[in-house]
Design a protein that fits this description.
alpha+beta
């Protein structure tokens, strides 16, 4: 079979969907999965069918296991639907994230943290508890609260609220897919206390503080471009208010602010190119590139988007390093299978769907779109190569800019075609201006990221040089903001649409891939 892991990943994902609707006993599912896997080892003629059946049951089992209420100390057992004033004790999963929101046309700050709960107290009676919790606190928490710190927090605990109106953001469903069923609201930062000491601040937290200071060297004030640079490099979500997000969402350029495939892909390409210029052997280049990618993902705190992109880059670079025949579709579904084995709830998250569906469309559609866009520049097939190379559009200095223009436009168009239903699903927007906007913004994002990396590498020993990099990245980010805002002024740049049905989205992708890849013919 040419792409064996494509079938395995699709069937495993189907098992997750079954497990989301049918909650059979976990023990029975595990026994059935092991039995089918054993039959697959014994059978010869029907082995592949039983292997796919085992993957289906594996997805079903994993989903039921991850969502089942197993311990008696589960928060879903201890708490009711009514709000309660409690004190919780647990560990911070990541540093408290700052969020800027607008209140009466003024900026206000709040901190959002995720806690692994260990104990719960009503009054003075403590009892063991387990589960994850999201904590929201007005103001900014001091730096003494960091990843792994044991904390005690007092506040009102309740279930997250649903959407305020149809087709608006549903925080309850969003948090449920992350395994969070309750939220705690503290009245102020005074409700936070350190429950136990002895832990050291992790490298990711220390790097975030260093990077924010370094990327601000030479800049006069903390303005929007600088804040968005921190978002681009460090996944700092504080400045992403509704008014800031709106032009990027409507222009279709909002994806640049996630530690996702674009950023990991750019870093991977820069590393591979750098090693190739130094004539480093391919195997050694891959051996050095893969740990560097994961190190960067770790410095940003291992967000889910960075893990997805790093897994995909590891598979592709690993195959390239050992000189194995590459099949991007098979590699993509291999990465999807690994991620869903790690966390089956990822299947229902917007980031996972956008990442893999858009990349799949790029892989399948890009060659066709590139061929269409490149046809006007192709030489006459009846001309000798020596004469064709002397023509303006086909040789000399124009060849590389022409190839860059066609490839960038083709990637932007393929990504736009692949994101239309999902953009309508999660942002309720149909972007018309997305392709020309990304044609300009994506290369500028790459240059901004290069400047930021230059600043981070020189900030501790050459601050003046880091300042030059920072001015360059600030100017590029300012340009990205202006271009996105300018694109939105075109009418119509984007159209507000309702959520498409599952049948509509499925039919769209089926027709798109069938037509543009030639399967229908």
């Amino acid at each position: 079979m040419r792409r064996p892991l494509l079938s395995a990943a699709v069937v495993y994902a189907a098992g997750i969907l079954v497990g989301d609707f049918l909650h059979a006993p976990f023990q029975w599912l595990l026994v059935a999965c092991l039995a089918v896997a054993l039959v697959a080892l014994i059978s010869v003629r029907l082995r592949w069918i039983f292997i796919l059946g085992a993957f289906l049951l594996l997805g079903w089992t994993n989903m039921v296991w991850r969502t089942a209420v197993v311990p008696s100390s589960d928060l879903r057992v201890l708490l009711s639907d009514k709000p309660e004033y409690v004190t919780v004790r647990g560990k911070l999963r990541q540093p408290p994230a700052e969020h800027i929101f607008e209140r009466h046309h003024e900026e206000a700050m709040r901190s959002v943290a995720y806690i692994d709960v260990a104990a719960l107290a009503r009054g003075t009676n403590w009892q063991s508890a387990s589960g994850q919790l999201i904590v929201m606190t007005p103001g900014v928490l001091p730096e003494q609260f960091y990843t792994g710190q044991c904390v005690a927090i007092s506040g009102v605990i309740q279930q997250p609220s649903g959407p305020f109106a149809d087709e608006l953001f549903d925080s309850k469903s969003f948090l449920k897919r992350k395994g969070i069923y309750y939220q705690l609201r503290a009245t102020s930062t005074n409700d936070w206390q350190i429950a136990a000491g002895g832990t050291t601040k992790p490298l990711s937290d220390r790097f975030a503080a260093y990077a924010k200071n370094t990327l601000a060297i030479g800049l006069s004030e903390e303005d929007l471009p600088l804040r968005l640079i921190w978002t681009l490099v460090l996944d700092w979500k504080a400045p992403m208010t509704a008014s800031v997000e709106e032009p990027f969402v409507k222009a279709g350029t909002f994806h640049i602010f996630a530690v996702d495939g674009l950023r990991i892909g750019l870093i991977t390409a820069m590393l591979v190119t750098f090693f190739q210029v130094l004539r480093v052997p391919r195997a050694l280049a891959g051996f050095l590139t893969i740990p560097t990618i994961w190190f960067y993902a770790g410095l940003t705190g291992f967000p889910a988007s960075a893990i997805r992109a790093s897994i995909m880059a590891t598979i592709v670079i690993g195959g390239w390093a050992v000189k194995r025949p590459s099949d991007l579709v098979n590699s993509l579904f291999t990465a999807a299978l690994i991620i869903l084995l790690w966390d089956p709830q990822q299947l229902f998250q917007a980031g996972f769907q956008l990442s893999f569906v858009v990349v799949l469309c790029i892989v399948l559609v890009l060659p066709i779109v590139r061929s269409w866009l490149g046809k006007p520049f192709e030489p006459d097939p009846f001309l000798p190569k020596q004469i064709a190379a002397q023509q303006f559009w086909h040789g000399g200095w124009i060849a590389h800019p022409r190839k860059f223009f066609v490839d960038t436009l083709a990637i932007s168009l393929a990504a736009w075609l692949g994101s239309i239903p999902l953009g309508a699903q999660y942002f309720h927007v149909f972007n018309i201006i997305s392709t020309p906007a990304n044609f300009v913004v994506v290369p500028m994002t790459a240059l901004t990221l290069i400047s930021c990396l230059g600043s981070l590498l020189t900030g501790f020993w050459a601050p003046s040089l880091a300042g030059l990099f920072n001015h360059a990245s600030w100017g590029l980010m300012k340009g990205i903001i202006v271009i996105s805002q300018w694109c939105v002024q075109w009418r119509p740049a984007a159209i507000n649409v309702s959520t498409p049905t599952l049948l509509t989205s499925t039919w769209y992708y089926a027709v798109l891939l069938a037509l543009l890849t030639g399967w229908i013919f």
